[in-house]
Amino acid sequence: MANDKTSMQLISRGILSENPIFKLALSMCPAVGISTTVINGLMLGVAVLFVQVFSSVTISLFKNKIHPRIRIPTYTLTIATWVTVIDLALAAYLPDAYARMGIFVKLIVAFAIITMRLEMFACKESVNDSFWDGLGMGLGFMVGMVVIGFVRELLGSGAIFGYDVLGFKPLLFFILPSAGFFVVGLMMAFFNWIELAYKRTKGKI
Amino acid sequence: MKDILTIIFRLTVTCILAAMVMGSAFIITNKAKKHNEHVNEQKVRYALLGYSAAQPIPDSMALHEMYRYVVTDKESQAIGYLLPGKEGFIFLTLDMEGKVIDNKPVDIAESAVLEKDLRDKVVQEIAGAGRSVTFADQTIVVTNNGERVAYLLDGKFTGFKTFIGVMLAVDPKFSILGLEILEHEEDPGLGAEIERDYFRNQFKGKTFDQLKDLDVVKEPLPDEYFQALEGNIAAADAAEILAKYGDRDIYALTGATISSRYVNTGVKGIVKKFAYRLNILDTALADQKIKAAF
């Protein structure tokens, strides 16, 4: 299967039509667990973006050298390596943020979205395409986390980026983990609705 | 069979490559990490002495680090202190009765002292062949205009699960100024509550005499005391409440009496041992007319 999409199409696919959180519904655990504020969502999004891009490129580089019987262990090793790198880097250069979300960074090893992209895309396509695909998926995840974080922070603590904007706390419920599911569900519906509306105006349906 | 061999070979190569990447990342970030730890340590120290970013430590104050080593040769054990003198560092060895065995100047830079490996090497050289040295603990003597105002003690003792690492601040009469839990692995929600203000601050202000027979009681923590310890009420009111409960024993944490007991015993042990050692050290310093920096 050769890839016939341009780099821009690969990126937009990751963010819109195949957004990991809203469309593929993968890696929901962190989406629910850590996205209580915009900053947290952004930080984890950046970490995932880094791991996704580097893992995709690495696997794509060595795709002919990977024995088909041990591809999953190899993917896991690759992801674990890059997660360790970003984990060490965050701990060293952003200690305050790391104190809050350190445990979730280690969990990136088990994120379904990364393994799935390696299996579906990077092990078959060229390094260049894999890079753009990884970037698109990573950005899609990051955008998803930031949007969820935005809603939850605004409704839960009445603030954005830690600054109090509303002056009161509308619904404390949104800070709690269970509210993450509500936000994700509503967002999914919203994304689907936009897509349908877009297709309708184009006359595709 | 051939398959297995290639699989083994490729997995090995993958692991080696991964190890190399992770190793280089570790080497690159290690310096920044050490720096962070150091900054963090400094912050904890200043916080224990009652200073923060908003209220910086005055220039007249100085922190002097003092390291204690256990020196052993074939027959006997001795205690070695690496301490800052008026000019350069001094390594003072005392026997178990507190008599001075020897007293040598140490040629080591201020910055090198902070590095454990470098320091241990220098101390080993000073102690000479045939004697082995083991690092025991470190103490920071805080002076203000040359007068001793506090000691910061590092300590480690057993907890319910593993070790609990603490830093204690005591004044020259060994009353507790503050307690900070640096590391522990107690159960979240139970033993881990030892790091909360309402537990730690119960030790604050306990005098040396009170401390000697300080116990842990299994009673519910009165609400006003809790609020005062957590710093939820105005400073003036809080001081009154804290004074009222000042001579009580430590209230055990709910569901974590054992952790509370370990912290209590540990803190008592650290302060008592330190008071005993400092007495010996001060006598030795006075005897030998050694001019220490503190």
UniProtKB/TrEMBL annotation, chain A:
Q: Which residues cross the membrane?
A: 74-93, 99-118, 130-151, 171-194
Q: Where in the cell is it found?
A: Endomembrane system
How the protein sits in the membrane? Multi-pass membrane protein
Q: Which NCBIfam families match?
A: PRK12405.1 (NF009070)
The lineage's top-level taxon is Bacteria
Any single GO CC term annotated in Swiss-Prot or TrEMBL for this entry: plasma membrane
Keywords from the UniProt entry:
Membrane, Translocase, Transmembrane, Transmembrane helix, Transport
Provide the protein name: Electron transport complex protein RnfE
UniProt signal peptide:
none
Pfam families according to UniProt? Rnf-Nqr
TrEMBL record, chain B:
UniProt keywords (A-Z) are: Electron transport, Flavoprotein, FMN, Membrane, Phosphoprotein, Transmembrane, Transmembrane helix, Transport
GO molecular function annotation? electron transfer activity; FMN binding
Q: Does the keyword Transferase apply?
A: no
One CC-aspect GO term: plasma membrane
Q: Where is the signal peptide?
A: none
- Looking at the UniProt entry, the stretches that span the membrane are 7-28
UniProt domain FMN-binding: residue ranges? 159-274
What is this protein called in UniProt? Electron transport complex protein RnfG
Organism encoding this protein: Desulfoprunum benzoelyticum
